Protein 1
Amino acid sequence: MIKLNNVRAGYDGIEILHGISLEVKSGESLSIIGPNGCGKTTLLRCIAGILPFSGEILINGADIRKLKQKELSKKVAMLSQMTGIYFSYTVFDTVMMGRFAHDDGKLFNSSQEIDEEISLNALKILGLSDLKDREINTLSGGQIQRVFLAKIIAQDPDVILLDEPTNHLDLSFQIELITFLKTLQKKGKTIIGVLHDINLAMKLSENVLLMDEGNVALHGKNKEVYSSKKLSEIYKVDIHSYMLETLEKWKNIKS
């Protein structure tokens, strides 16, 4: 379970999160939504141990600030939106980096073969076996996201954090990625995803966290949050009517 108690954080002395308290059960999937600048990514960065914060964040009872990097890497991994790729490691070497957390530091051991087997299996799961010797900076955006997801699978953390992972990716891969993440959740992984697309957020999770200006506006089941007037108030648009209007247009298109 992930538990946040009065978490505050920000940048350059400006507070972005204003005392977030939240619980996410083990094996749960949670979508985080809200307007730009409301603190969604800041919250993920705190949970990942990337950004300093005040308050408390516990993962399975362990205070993340008291964990060494390898210990934290066994508990949590983060898949971010696509940025530029500036290194030329192969696909296989990139996925193998996910096994760093499981390296016991011994000079002579059999873990290398195990790590390679796990990494190759992760590539197979994501349909990347044929690309394992390609340099990652020669791949398309969708392929690169598959590689980093394979790296997370090889890392085998308890919690997977997603920061706009479908940005700039085509629709078919967005759907495929969300479907695969739901499969991981069914296998016991805790999934927390920040998504701009409310339809994708709804598809990913039965539970949703609506944020507004660094605070928790609503946290609950999809029907509870998406039917609330607060959703339209925070986004400053009648989202429910907009979605229904779009659906009606699709109904009038023959496939």
Note: The chain has a mean pLDDT of 88.
Protein 2
Amino acid sequence: MARRTFSIGGVHPSDAKISRDCKIEALPIAPTVYIAVAQHIGAPAKPVVAPGDKVKAGDVIAEPGAFMSAYIHSSVSGTVKSIGPRKDLSGNIQTVVEIEVEGDEWKEGIDLSDTLVTDIPEDPKAIIEKVKLGGVVGLGGATFPTHVKLSLPPGKKCEMLIINGCECEPYLTSDFRTLLEKGEQVVVGTVVVGTALLMQALGVDKATIAIEDNKPEAIEHISGIVSSFKAKGGKYQGIEVLPLMKKYPEGGEKQLIDAVMHRQVPSGCLPIDVGAVVDNVCTALAVYEAVQKNKPLVENSVTVTGECFPKQANLMVRVGTPLRYIIDYLGGVPVDAAKVISGGPMMGKAVANLDAATLRRSAFPYKGTDQEDA
């Protein structure tokens, strides 16, 4: 039986998942981090700390500047050294909070254990509020504040939640590793629980976890986890895993809705206009951690890869880590590297400044030629 896919267009580049066997490794914390206050769609957050302040990992360092905005938290413990302008990945000036790292102390109340919390809160508003306080944004590339996406406009109804596990962009594998390697005690189970939390927040009974068929291990693994969770009843009953054809840009929001629901989002409209809400699989994990563990979004998985790069890697990186620190950790810039790309060969952008820091969604493959995760 043919795999589902979107109905019009698409291309079939080599997926080049040469880092697919690299387990996610925790990157040692950099001596200094630089956390931007504008790393989401909407208004920049407003700093609430000052130079000289002591912070712990998980402390709020900037508050939303408008409805379409998000909380920013410290990803480390240490001392705020400065708040001011610094060049970002593209060479543009951003306001950043510079923190000198001192140990790794976390804010009280954050649960860093692997203990899986599967009970779903009943109150959708309480879920959305914790998502907001956790600074959760979309981790598929757009960084849309998740609490805004979950706050449906009057008169709109979600018929299906789609969890995007396609990772159709060539080279990138951090979503794949997130799906595959972290079992019930860490991530795979939490992706399922995170999906159920999103369903509860949206008031929807159906959810589809969509994964391209070039990731058979992830499809099998997640399907097994979903089956075991369905035995728990409740919101878990409505979750399905759907394998999709490997075709770019399968993971694009509108293409994914077409493939899963056979509905096309009209120009100028949003997914909710056809009854859909789409979230990345890592966003589901971040929702779980914010709601069930009180852990804000302060780290994310990053793929570092490319034919000219001697060491492929998927790393768990604290937000605000300088790119040069990550690259040096893996051996430095290869002499034959033409450029470093933030994202991927299809949608990524060449990095103008290696001293720029990672945001809440950063994935950058090394490329030796002119070549993001949709």
Note: Confidence is low (pLDDT under 50) at residues 183-187, 368-374.
